[in-house]
Amino acid sequence: ESYFSADGKKMIFQSEREPGNPFFQIYLMDLETGDTERISPGKGKTTCAWIHPDGKRVMFASTQDDPDAEKEQKDEIDLRASGKERRYSWDYDEFYEIFEQDLATKEYRQLTNARGYDAEGSWSPDGSLIAFASNRSAYEEQLTDEQKKAFELDPAWANEIYVMNADGTNVKRLTTHAGYDGGPFFSADGKKICWRRFSENGATAEIMTMNIDGSDQKQLTHLQAMSWAPYFHPSGKYLIFTTNRH
């Protein structure tokens, strides 16, 4: 998973390459020189990085403050060494929080602070807002027995799209859909968000758009397949996505 900077000169990506840590860490690459530096601290799990429009900050989700992070790393290494295999599934770890790093000072700043999976963040084109996905509502609200069962079976079931100020304040929930809503990105004019919406059973996903206040939610695809990773073209006239329809 990798994304360009606004000026197209750098790329931020996640990779499993850190000695002693089998999970993804975040790296920033200069596309001209090929120079690559690790952004995340090297501990815990990370995902979903983004470069601020001014190029001075980067954002990513991390479990670096999980007190059991290093134990989980060792357990994963031991499991892989044992030769045992398991079906791939993404880990919606409840310790995921969104962090930013100042590239000059290398200091981290935590932007979210809620129990649950906070990740998949992206800045708006002017850098004033962050859209992200979270299943925090499953930990904050009273769930019915049926909802509890759905959440235990698949933590992504409770993922919704949120938007907040770039400093982490004024968090607003934009979607209230049973099933995974995730991967939000802003249009180039900053007026709309596109994202992927899964069916409640997680079997299919469709591409959606809405205004940044959550209004005018529209389903663009009706493929009844796994449609994924939408992103607006800079012109705003169309977007690109991937699907297994074929």
Describe the structure.
With 246 residues, the protein is mainly beta. Helix content is 11%, strand content 37%. It has three helices and 18 strands. The strands form five sheets. Strands 1-2-3-4 form a four-stranded antiparallel sheet, with no helix packed on it. A four-stranded antiparallel sheet has the order 5-6-7-8, with no helix packed on it. Strand 15 (205-211) and strand 16 (218-219) form a beta hairpin. The chain is globular, with a radius of gyration of 18 Å. The mean pLDDT is 96.
Mean pLDDT value: 96
Radius of gyration: 18 Å
Strand line-up in the sheet with most strands:
1-2-3-4
Structural category: mainly beta
Number of helices: 3
Taken as a percent bin, the fraction of beta residues is: 35-45%
Shape assignment:
globular
The helix-strand sequence is: EEEEEEHEEEEHHEEEEEEEE
Largest sheet: 4 strands, antiparallel
What portion of residues is helical? 10-25%
Q: What is the terminal-to-terminal distance?
A: 22 Å
Poorly predicted tracts of residues: none
Q: How many beta-strand elements?
A: 18
